[in-house]
Amino acid sequence: xxxxxxxxxxxxxxxxxxxxxxxxxxxxxxxxxxxxxxxxxxxxxxxxxxxxxxxxxxxxxxxxxxxxxxxxxxxxxxxxxxxxxxxxxxxxxxxxxxxxxxxxxxxxxxxxxxxxx
Length: 117
Known about the structure:
The protein has about 120 residues and is of the alpha+beta class. The protein folds into 2 domains: about 1-35, no CATH class; about 40-115, 2-Layer Sandwich (Translation Initiation Factor IF3), CATH 3.30.110.30. It has helices at about 20-35, 45-50, 65-75; strands at about 1-5, 10-15, 40, 55-60, 85, 110-115. The strands form 2 sheets. A 4-stranded mixed sheet has the order 3-4-6-5. Strands 1-2 form a two-stranded antiparallel ribbon.
């Protein structure tokens, strides 16, 4: 079986006899690779720096649609605007008093942000 990775473009042939073990190891490696690209930020300046470095961003957010629209407008460019990508099901601790990186309002949750290419 030939497996092509989307995260790095590599292809690998795996014998059917080892398929389960090899696929599990491959998926674990892909997850580690993706996790290594996450940058946790708390300020707008850190957000724009991480965005310009094409990072996946985890940021405290107030969970307001208007704020997301504002982020899209403020980051619009040649590479496309930033947007929320998803909200982690298992939320990291959000310390009391944490503010939204974009609005300065009280944050309600952590969300992943980035550009879709």
